[in-house]
Amino acid sequence: MQSRMSNPVNVLPDALQPIRTLLQATRQGGVAETTLELVHLRVSQINGCSACVDAGSTSARKAGETTERLLAVSAWRESPHFDDAERAALAMAEAATRLADRGDAVTDDIWEAAADHYDEAQLAAIVLMIGVTNMFNRLNATTRQIAGSAW
To answer: What is the mean pLDDT of the chain?
Structure first.
């Protein structure tokens, strides 16, 4: 596979810093870095973004995530490797990524399950991570960015 073009954040360099600032802001919410990395990985898996799956698994390992848990993310509901808080974050990630799959994509049950484990700042961090990841996935998939390529 070959990229269709350079990553849009390289073509329009003023876009990169605000995106990086958003990513840094997700780290200010008090959510474990490994949880945010799991959210990023799951969203990227759903969207089929190989560049983000590659980058996400690498950064998750750097944050201390195990290979066993990384391999289980795609089947998190059936896996014994995740706690209830992580499951709530992953459920939110799936629902907020698949907005068109149902009328009320992020149901009250999904929201309340997450709110049982995370305060408002933590929920904000999770929602921002989901949104930023979806944006990256769309940029990378549309332009066919190659896994492992720098942006």
So the answer is: 94
